[in-house]
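In response to the reviewer comment on reproducibility (Comment 2.3), we provide here a single inverse folding case reported in full, input and output, so that an independent group could reproduce the run without further information from us. The C-alpha cells appear first.
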C-alpha cells in the first residue's frame, strides 16, 4: 500500500479515538498523515451534522451542546487539550524555557481552564446563532480548521522536533509538500461549498479567518517560543474553528 494511503488510516488513529487498528505505524507513515487532516475533519463535521439533524425536536442550545459533546468524545478532546495547555504556558511563562516546561506539564492551570470553558461556551453560542446554517458550519469549521496547523508546519519550524517525549514529533516532520496538498484540500472544500450554494462571502470569510488566526497566532508563538509545538497546533485548530464560526455568524 502506498505510504500516503496507509497514512489515511493512521490519521484516524492520531486525531480520533476511533479504533481503526494498524498500530504501530512506521515513522514514514506518520509524516504523511497530516495530508488527511481536513478529510478527517470533514467526516467529523458530517457526524455532528447527523446528530444535529437527528435532534430536530429539541432546542438549538441542546442540539449544539450534544453535537459539540460528540465531537469531543470522538477526538478525545485532543485539540481542546492543546488549547488549554497553550494558554497555560503562554499566560504563565515569562521566558522560552519556562514556556516549554509548562507545555510538558499534564496538569491544567487557571489560564487553561478559563480558556477551555470560554472557548466551548463561545462555540456553542455561535452554533445556536447559526441555526439552520449549523450543519454547514460543522463541516467547514471542522475541516478547514484542521488544514491550518498543517499549513503552518510548512511555514514555521517545530521547536520540539528532536524531543523524544514529543507526541507530535513524527507528524511534525511533514513540511511544505504536505502543506501544499492541504491547500488543495482547502480549495476542494471551499469549491464544494460554492457548488452546494454556500454564499461566496461566507466561503471567503472562512478563508480570511484562517489566514488571520494563522498570521496572528503564528507570529506570536514564533516570538515567544521560536516556532510551533503540538499544543500550539491544537490551539490553532480551536482558534481557527472559532474564527470560522464567528465569520459565518457575522456575514
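Designed residues, in position order:
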Amino acid at each position: 500500500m502506498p505510504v500516503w494511503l496507509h497514512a489515511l488510516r493512521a490519521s484516524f488513529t492520531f486525531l480520533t479515538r476511533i479504533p481503526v487498528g494498524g498500530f504501530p505505524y512506521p515513522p514514514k507513515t506518520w509524516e504523511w498523515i497530516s495530508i488527511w487532516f481536513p478529510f478527517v475533519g470533514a467526516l467529523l463535521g458530517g457526524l455532528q451534522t447527523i446528530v444535529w439533524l437527528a435532534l430536530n425536536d429539541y432546542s438549538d442550545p441542546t442540539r449544539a451542546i450534544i453535537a459539540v459533546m460528540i465531537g469531543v468524545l470522538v477526538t478525545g478532546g485532543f485539540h481542546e487539550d492543546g488549547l488549554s495547555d497553550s494558554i497555560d504556558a503562554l499566560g504563565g511563562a515569562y521566558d522560552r524555557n519556562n514556556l516549554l516546561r509548562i507545555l510538558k506539564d499534564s496538569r491544567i492551570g487557571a489560564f487553561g481552564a478559563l480558556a477551555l470553558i470560554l472557548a466551548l461556551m463561545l462555540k456553542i453560542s455561535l452554533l445556536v446563532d447559526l441555526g439552520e446554517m449549523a450543519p454547514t458550519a460543522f463541516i467547514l469549521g471542522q475541516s478547514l480548521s484542521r488544514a491550518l496547523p498543517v499549513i503552518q508546519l510548512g511555514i514555521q519550524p517545530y521547536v520540539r522536533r528532536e524531543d523524544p517525549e514529543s507526541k507530535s514529533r513524527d507528524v511534525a516532520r511533514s513540511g511544505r509538500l504536505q502543506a501544499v496538498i492541504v491547500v488543495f484540500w482547502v480549495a476542494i472544500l471551499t469549491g464544494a461549498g460554492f457548488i452546494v450554494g454556500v454564499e461566496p462571502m461566507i466561503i471567503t470569510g472562512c478563508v480570511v479567518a484562517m489566514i488571520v488566526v494563522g498570521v496572528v497566532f503564528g507570529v506570536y508563538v514564533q516570538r515567544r517560543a521560536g516556532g510551533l509545538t503540538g499544543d500550539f497546533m491544537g490551539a490553532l485548530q480551536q482558534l481557527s474553528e472559532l474564527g470560522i464560526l464567528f465569520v459565518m455568524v457575522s456575514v
